[in-house]
Each structure stands twice: as C-alpha cells, then as structure tokens.
Specification:
Number of helices: 19
Strand content: 15-25%
Radius of gyration: 39 Å
Length: 491
C-alpha cells in the first residue's frame, strides 16, 4: 500500500503525460507499482485504528519539521530526549508521510521548424508469421515542430530495420537538422550518467551520410523526447487498441491509410492545428534526402555446414554445394539475405521471419546431384513429393503396380519442369480418382487439357432436298394491304 502523497505524485505524472517508466524513475518506485496505481482510486481500508506510541508526539514532530529540514534520525533522537518509548520505524513512516518527496519539474521544450525529429521503438504483443509468432515492433518518428508523424511496423528491432525505417521516414517527412533518440541499443553504445553518450559507429556513419546530428537523451530522461513518447502511446491507443491484427503484410498499408486520414490530420491538442498543415510550412526548412543510397545491411561472418546451408535466425539458407564447410559473408537486409565469398555474390534469398525453415535454391544442388546418382534419385523423389500432398499416395500406387516406380517419377518431374506444377498436380488428382498409376497417363491428361478443340463450322446446306425440307412461316401481307387501301386483303 502506498501513501496518499505518493498516489498524488503518480496522478500528477499521468497528467503531465509521463510514461510509467518515467514516473517510477522520478519517484523511486517499481514500475509495476506505478502501473497498478495509474487508474486506481486511493482508498485505505477502514479498520479499527489502534493507538500508536507516537500519537502524543506527532504535533511536536510537525512543528520541528516546519522549522528545520530534520532527518528521521534527528527527529528520533529528539523524541528520545522527550521520553518517547517506541522505535524508529514508525517515526520514519510518519516523517515520510508528512514530508513527501519533492517532485521534479519539467520545462516545455521549444523547437524551430526543421530543427529536430524524435525517434523511438514501440512494441505491441506478437503476430502470427507463417508457422510461428514474432514480436510486433513499430518505429515512430515525429517532427518536433509540426508533430507530423511517420510510423512503420517491423518484426525485429535490429540495426538494418532501424536504419531502413529512418530512410523511409526521411522520404516521407524530410531530413531534420538533428534526430533525438533514447539510449537505444541501435543508437547508443554507452551513456554514463552525467557524461557524453558514445554513439554507435554504424549509426554515426548513417547520420553523416544523410546530414543530421544525433542527440542522445540523458539517462532516465525520457521527457526530453516526450513528443515521440506520446506518439508511441497514440499509435497503441488509437490504431492498435481493439484491432484484430491481420496478416503482417496487410498491416503497414492499413497504417499508411490511418496516418493520412487520422493521425496527421487531427487537431493537435498542444498546437491546436493539424500536423499536416504545419508540416507544409515546415517542409521548406527540412533537408532533401541524399540521392546516394547508404548500404544499411548488417554484415555477419558465418560458416556453411556440410549440407551447404548457412543458419540465421533459426532458418537455413542454401549456398552453392562447392562452398560446403567454408566461411561466407552474409549481408542482412530487412527483406533479403545476400551471401558472398570474398567480394563475389554467391547466393541471394528472400529473408524469412518464420522459424526452422529450409530455404533452398534448386540450382545450388545441381552440380552435386550430377556427380552422385543416388543423390540425384533422392533429389528427384523429393521434388516429386513436394508437388502436392497427393504425391505420396500416388508414389505408393506406382510402387505397388509398376516395376520401376522411380522411372515414372522421373518422367512426371520432367513434365512438371516443362508444363509447371499446377497442371501436374491436377492430373495427379484425376489419376488417383481413376486409380491409373503411370507417367504415360499423367502425360495424356496434361496433353488432353492443353489440346485446343476445333471451332464449330457454320451450317452448310449443299443438297437440293435439304432446301426443300426447310419450313418457313406464312408471309404477313397486312403491310401491303395498308399501302393499297384494301383493308380486307382481297387484291
């Protein structure tokens, strides 16, 4: 149970739009305690109060503290001289209650147009990605003067994601003179309390390339970048709250619509203007984006295993078979992996955020398959079984009814290379329905579907008898009767 003064301090911090972490740091409390009392009314249990040995001395303690800033130990020593029979613990509690900790005051920071932007990461639970779940992160950048906001969802908070989000934000907003960040792992290597921050050298190179200065906030002083702190909370409370998270691929397009239709066109409670309107005025003070690209990749030195695979983030990516067991250099981008032998690019793969996947380029195994017949047969069978879940059942039928099932498998795989997988999968389904197990039958089905039927010829009447057999309706002569004036049609 916290005392009433501490509860008031927590409520004041909430009114100043401070985060629970900032309030806990300022008051010296555990962040869980602050979160528990954020929206909770203060109500002590009403129980029968037992008298305290300190009660007769409380008035004197108040007078002493009003006159001098005595410590609890000094108060206790004076009480002992006055004949106080109790211990020091209740004295400390009473002194703490009537003399609450002083609350830190914060100045309102002012910025000129184009002077600064503030950047930070936010998190919001997890999201399904294929066969696994990943932590959902989002990058927020807010221009300090106009409050124009850029937000981007990611599946990690690594350096390449951090730099790529900066580039996207600069293209959307413009480049400010400085970017204010918290002591993020991607931005700050070390920041001793009261001393200068040591900026991450990769981030420092990036800042020099795009022409902005990095400003690291003081330790435990998140209020110095309060605009982006409130921006993170605004994304959680307005866009994400109550949202049934869709597929990750649909999340960023929906976010862009929200930024254009809600976030950047709302009436801001501090400026009383729309961020979009202020940004139109601020654009002239922002720098243009450097047209030369900065290589944002994270570089790793890894070794390919005997199956010519490189492991990264619990997934395995193939390299050409000749590099099995050899060290390779991996450049990790937000959307792809590029693998090098020295300065030579040997493989490129789309980056997977699933887990325990084997990502293979079929060309990487061709040289090895050509050398080993058994490996080639196993590779062909693997390719056949990957066509469809029905392929395994069809293979069992080939083994039971054909003398050389592997020869039929080779023929079917060759058909897949010629016609594509979809026609072969459809033919396998039809062949299973008729229990027809052979590569010739699959080839026949594929050819039949590809065959174009001739168009129907127009009706041709060549015989005289055919013309005589045509039945025609009797002619209507009423139009002629009107012209001749013979209404009865006697003419």
């Amino acid at each position: 149970m916290i005392d009433y003064a501490t509860w008031c301090a927590i409520r004041d911090g909430t009114a100043q739009h401070l985060s629970p972490e900032q309030i806990s740091s300022a008051l010296g409390l555990n962040v869980k305690t602050v979160r528990r009392w954020l929206d909770r009314p203060y109500a002590q249990r009403q129980t029968a109060r037992r008298g305290s040995k300190l009660d007769p001395f409380k008035g004197r303690i108040v007078r002493w503290l009003e006159a001098h800033p005595l410590s609890a130990q000094q108060v206790f020593q004076r009480l002992m001289d006055e004949g106080y029979p109790g211990g020091i613990s209740i004295v400390k509690d009473f002194v703490r209650f009537i003399r609450p900790r002083p609350r830190e005051a914060f100045l309102t920071l002012a910025f000129a147009p184009g002077e600064a932007a503030q950047a930070d990461w936010g998190e919001f639970g997890t999201i399904a990605v294929g066969n696994t779940r990943r932590r959902l992160s989002f990058f927020v950048m807010v221009l300090a003067w106009s409050r124009q906001m850029y937000v981007e969802f990611t599946l990690s908070q690594t350096m390449e994601q951090f730099l790529a989000a900066h580039v996207n934000a600069f293209h959307a907003l413009g480049v400010p003179k400085k970017v204010m960040v918290d002591n993020l792992r991607c931005a700050v290597v070390a920041h001793p309390r009261g001393g200068p921050a040591e900026i991450h050298p990769r981030y420092l190179d990036f800042a020099r390339h795009y022409g902005f200065e990095i400003v690291a906030c003081a330790v435990a002083k998140g209020n110095e970048k309060g605009r982006v702190e409130r921006g993170v909370g605004y994304v959680k409370g307005n866009f994400l709250s109550g949202l049934e998270l869709p597929n990750f691929a649909a999340l960023n397009p929906a976010l862009r619509v929200w930024l254009e239709s809600v976030a950047n066109v709302r009436l801001h409670r501090e400026t009383h203007r729309r961020p979009l309107d202020l940004w139109q005025e601020e654009r002239a003070h922002l720098q243009a984006v450097n047209p030369r690209l900065f290589d944002i990749a994270r570089v790793l030195a890894l070794r390919a295993n005997r199956q010519f695979r490189v492991s990264f983030e619990s997934n395995r990516y193939s390299v050409p078979a000749r590099f099995a067991g050899r060290p390779v250099t991996v450049k990790v981008y937000p959307d792809r992996l590029c693998l090098y032998d020295g300065e030579t690019l040997i493989a490129r793969h789309a980056r997977s955020f699933e887990r325990h996947r084997d990502i293979e380029d079929p060309d990487h195994a061709k040289a090895l398959v050509a050398q080993r017949r058994h490996a080639r047969d196993a590779h062909v069978l693997k390719r056949f079984l990957a066509l469809s879940p029905l392929a395994e059942k069809y293979h069992l039928g080939l083994v039971e009814r054909r003398g050389n099932a592997l020869a039929h498998v080779r023929q079917i795989v060759a058909l897949a290379e010629i016609h594509g997988d979809e026609p072969i999968v459809r033919a396998l389904a039809d062949a299973l329905a008729f229990e027809a197990f052979s590569s010739e039958y699959i080839a026949h089905l594929v050819a039949a579907r590809n065959r174009r039927l001739p168009e129907a010829n127009p009706l041709s009447l060549m015989r005289h008898q055919d013309v005589l057999d045509i039945e025609l309706p009797p002619a209507d002569l009423s139009a002629y009767a009107k012209v001749t004036g013979d209404e009865n049609g006697t003419l």
